[in-house]
Backbone:
């Protein structure tokens, strides 16, 4: 049932993309903002309380509904899980945001490329040349492939519908509160650390997936040698392995809020380009197909073992 729900969710995402109106994550964002305004304080305890109030009730509600459906209607349980997973993953959205960057670069329209990439990265895109625009988009595809695709599938496979809700809501709060700014340094500490914990295993599985679906030798080498220098314990392995798998150079200086931030170099090979953006999307799609195949084979093997 888990494998079928995963397949159904991915097919829904490919066919429909993200809901255009009233996406549950938008509603959750409003709830989180309300809780932040009500509970905000410059301390970790306040942040922990806001995280618990925001995340735990929806997870508990999901568990109750999933438990009821599993007991009385396995097929309804499958549909429920598939719908929630569909709302949590975003492969089609990832492609829809990255491809306009590649098209603009192929047309040598740097202003359009900068505008398109500004929708998916937080750096100062007006200061980027064509290579850095391509690198920013390629990095975004690799990192969001881990967050928006593989991590969601992992937690669904492990804990079902409650697991994917726990992951997606936690990841959303990290995106809202997980910044090292005066406002969120303490209040957002719990959101950032919990997201790090939830992504620890999925990030390494994603890095391994990129290695298997690309240049494996370069991916393993870049992961081993370059990832430890990256600030994020999870983004480092994902982007280093992905860059190596693609045979492309990423990382390096990037402008944030008017300041050029020095970042470690990632990958080996050619500079980033429109081709590397498309190659990154292809890498994620190959990895997605590999995960679905593995889930289906596991389900078949488990079913065979049960009958035996």
Residues:
């Amino acid at each position: 049932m888990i494998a079928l729900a995963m397949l159904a969710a991915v097919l829904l995402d490919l066919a429909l993309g993200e809901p255009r109106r009233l996406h549950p994550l938008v509603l959750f964002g409003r709830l989180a903002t309300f809780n932040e305004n009500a509970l905000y304080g410059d301390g970790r305890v306040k942040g922990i309380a806001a995280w618990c109030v925001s995340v735990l009730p929806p997870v508990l509600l999901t568990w109750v509904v999933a438990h009821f459906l599993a007991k009385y209607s396995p097929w309804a349980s499958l549909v429920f899980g598939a719908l929630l997973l569909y709302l949590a993953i975003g492969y089609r959205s990832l492609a829809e945001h990255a491809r306009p960057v590649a098209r603009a670069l192929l047309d040598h329209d740097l202003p359009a490329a900068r505008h398109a990439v500004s929708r998916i990265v937080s750096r100062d895109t007006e200061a980027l040349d064509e290579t850095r625009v391509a690198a920013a988009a390629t990095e975004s595809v690799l990192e969001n492939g881990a967050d928006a695709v593989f991590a969601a599938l992992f937690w669904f496979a492990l804990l079902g519908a409650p697991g994917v809700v726990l992951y997606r809501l936690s990841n959303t709060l990290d995106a809202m509160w997980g910044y090292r700014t005066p406002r969120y340094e303490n209040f957002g500490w719990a959101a950032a650390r919990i997201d790090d914990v939830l992504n620890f295993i999925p990030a390494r599985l994603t890095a391994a997936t990129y290695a298997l679906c690309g240049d494996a030798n370069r991916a393993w080498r870049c992961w081993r040698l370059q990832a430890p220098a990256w600030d994020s314990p999870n983004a480092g392995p994902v982007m280093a392995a992905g860059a190596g798998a693609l045979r492309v150079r990423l990382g390096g200086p990037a402008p944030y809020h008017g300041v050029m931030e020095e970042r470690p170099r990632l990958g080996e090979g050619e500079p980033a380009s429109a081709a590397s953006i498309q190659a990154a999307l292809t890498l994620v799609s190959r990895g997605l197909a590999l995960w679905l195949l593995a889930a289906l084979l596991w389900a078949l093997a488990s079913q065979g073992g049960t009958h035996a």
Summary: The radius of gyration is 20 Å. The chain has twelve helices and five strands. Strands lie at 248-251, 254-256, 259-261, 265-267, 270-271. The first strand starts at residue 248 and ends at 251.
